[in-house]
Structure formats: C-alpha cells, structure tokens
Amino acid sequence: MKIQFLLRKGLLMTGIKPAYFLLSLIFLPGCALVDALHESKQLSNQQIRVNSILDVRTGKLINEAQLYQRVLASEYLLLGETHDNSYHHELQARIIKMLRHQPQRSISVSFEMITRKQAELLNQQNYDTSKQLIDILDRVKNNWPYQRDYQIVFDSVITAGFEILPANLDLDTLIQISMQPDEILPPDVRQLLEKTPLSESQYTDLEKEIIYSHCNKLPSEAISPMMQVQRVRDAVMALSLLRSKAETRVLIAGAGHTRNDRGVPLYLRGHDNTVNILSLAYLDVEPDTTDMQAYTQRWGGKTLPFDYVWFTPAVQRTEDPCNAIKHRKKTEKDL
Fold first, then answer.
1. Which residues have a Cβ under 8 Å from the Cβ of 245 and sit 6 or more positions away?
2. What is the C-alpha separation between 27 and 158, in angstroms, rounded?
3. How many CA atoms lie within 13 A of 6 on its CB side?
4. What does the alpha-carbon distance between residue 60 and residue 114 come to, in Å, rounded to a whole number?
5. Could you tell me if 111 and 96 are in contact, meaning their C-beta atoms sit under 8 angstroms apart?
6. Rounded to an integer, what distance in angstroms lies between the CA atom of residue 172 and that of residue 193?
7. Does 48 or 75 have the greater pLDDT score?
8. Structural domain of residue 318, as residue ranges?
9. From CA 300, how far away is CA 212, in angstroms rounded?
C-alpha cells in the first residue's frame, strides 16, 4: 500500500533536485525568455549565471549558435528539464523551431509525458492543434499539467510536422512493475535491461539519488521498487528513440533521465555504442550560488553528467516540495 501510494501521487524521481519533479505539485511559472549569447571562455566559479551554456567536456562556455551547430550534428538529442520550469519548455520549443528549418531531415520527438496507452489513442485520432492533442492525452488518467507546462512544446512540434512518440508506461503498469516486475515487465523492456545491467557503482549512485531526490524521507521498503521503476522508465525512453526511423530523434524528459552515466544514453549505447548522442540539461541557477562544485555535487559526481548544460532562471516555488512529502506521509497513515 505504501509503495502504491507514493507512485500514484507522482513520487517518481526524475532528477536530483529534492522532490522538484513530483508531478502532482502545482508551482508558479518560471521567468521570461532571454538570449544566451556568450563568447567561448573557460568556466570559473564566478561565471555561473543565468543563460550561460556550458560545454561539460571542455569546461568552456559557448553561445547559442555554437550549441545549435552541435545539435544539428546529433542523431539522438536528449533535452533534460525540470518539469515545472516553464522557461525550460520555452527553450525546448526554441530548439524544435530551429530544427524545423532543416527540411532535408526527418525528425521525431519522444515525450516522457506521453505513455504507450495514450499513443494508442493518438494513433486512432486526428489532431492539428495542441489543444486537440491535449484533449486526447487527458482521456487517460495522468498527473501531467499539459496545458500549463507543455502546450508551447506541443505547438512547436505540431507546427513543425514532426512525429510525436510515447516514451513512458502508464501509471498503473509502473505500479504493478514496482511490486511484481517478473510478471508485468514488458518483454522488450526486460531484454534491454538485461542487456544493460548497472555496475555496482552505478547501482549505489542510483540508490543515493533516489533517496536524496525524495528528501531522505523515502520508506526503506520503497527504495528498491523506485529504483526498478526508474530503470524501467529509462529503458522505455531509450526504446522509443531506438524504434523511431527518423534521422534526428529528440527526447523531452526530466534531466535525471538524460544523464550520460546511468540514464537513457546508457541504454542507447548498450544497444549500439556507435550512436551519436547529445545530452543537454537545463539546470536552475540558485540564488547566490555561483560555485560550480555545488552544482556537480547535486548530481553526485565531480562533473555534470551531461554533454551540455544551459543554466536557467529557477522556479519561484511557494512551498518547499519536501514539506509536501511530509503531508503525504501523514495522509498515507490515514489510508
């Protein structure tokens, strides 16, 4: 009962920031869009600021035009977000619009926010606008505030004429997998998980991430099932990309899923280690935090686990998400 409650209420970790990805929380929208045009330079602690773009491999800042050149060269483009930050969605839509001007390339966009069950409905219906798309998606129970957070991304994809693909399983299936993985796990997901096992260090790091992302308040018996669900979702997202026949395959997902070390890229490379992947994460700049080490530590390593990071305005939240977990735990006791 406890594990089912956590999963149904949206307590599915998709990034390292504590509980910021709890899908059922309602947050204030993010800040307005501004340009990011900086000359390439070596990153220092004092240079972390809103709308700086970091090339993680070189440690240098690049400008938006340079980033787009590298985006165009990628086969798999993973755009990692904080779900409730509207600024991240504006930047994702901006990249989609840029890709629209490459008519010689076929492009698909896979969404963590769309399940295989919802895709069955999409395949049976015609939709020409984001409103029509959202109306169809909402026929299947979900925790995603499509209208508030994703309309701008849907608009950009539909206008561009790109294929929309599902990259998640429905909530009931995930709950069943958390309790009976051997019986419920889809065969294609099982095969990819078995083909791409986690190393001991990867397993330990994922466990730490799951605990930390839930404010160190996750019941001990829920940790292993949550880790299983996280791995399953990563594998499902990878399969969505692998099955696309497009020349450029885009993924819209939480930043925790797009990390190179144990997220979707791990499973893509487990299938084919020659693929060209670009992982771009949009990360919030916290007030008065310019120390690079503070950001890398939040992601559990000495370097950020992405190819590029676009530092963005942080969401102004009216409530500490960790307080919401406390409230839910109290509510759970009453069940």
1. 106, 108
2. 26
3. 23
4. 35
5. no
6. 20
7. 75
8. 2-22+43-333
9. 10
Which tokens belong to 167? 């990259």
How remote is the C-alpha of 255 from its chain's centroid?
Answer: 4
Q: Which helix (H) or strand (E) holds 62?
A: strand 60-62
For 172-204, give the DSSP string: HHHHHHHH-HHHHS-HHHHHHHHHSPPPHHHHH
**Considering the domain boundaries, does residue 88 fall inside one?**
yes
Residues 109, 249: Cα–Cα separation, whole Å: 6
Say how far apart CA 221 and CA 276 lie, in whole Å: 38
pLDDT score at 182: 79
Chain centroid to CA 2: how far? 25
- What is the per-residue pLDDT across 122-151, written as a single tens digit (0 to 9) for each? 999 999 999 999 999 999 989 899 999 999
Is residue 34 included in any domain, yes or no?
A: no
**What is the phi/psi pair of residue 182, to 5°?**
-65, -25
Phi and psi at residue 24, to the nearest 5° = -95, 0
**What would the mean pLDDT of 177-199 be, rounded to a whole number?**
92
Amino acid at 185: L
Q: How many folded domains does the chain comprise?
A: 1
- Is 27 part of any domain? no
36 inside domain: no
- CATH number, domain of 311, equals 3.40.50.11550
Question: What percentage of the chain exceeds 90 in pLDDT?
Answer: 66
**Residue 166, strand partner residues:** 111
pLDDT tens digits, 240-294: 999 999 999 999 999 999 999 999 999 999 998 899 999 999 999 988 787 888 8
- The residue-averaged pLDDT of 157-175 equals 96
User: If we measure between CA atoms, which residue out of 234, 304, 240 comes closest to residue 13?
Assistant: 234
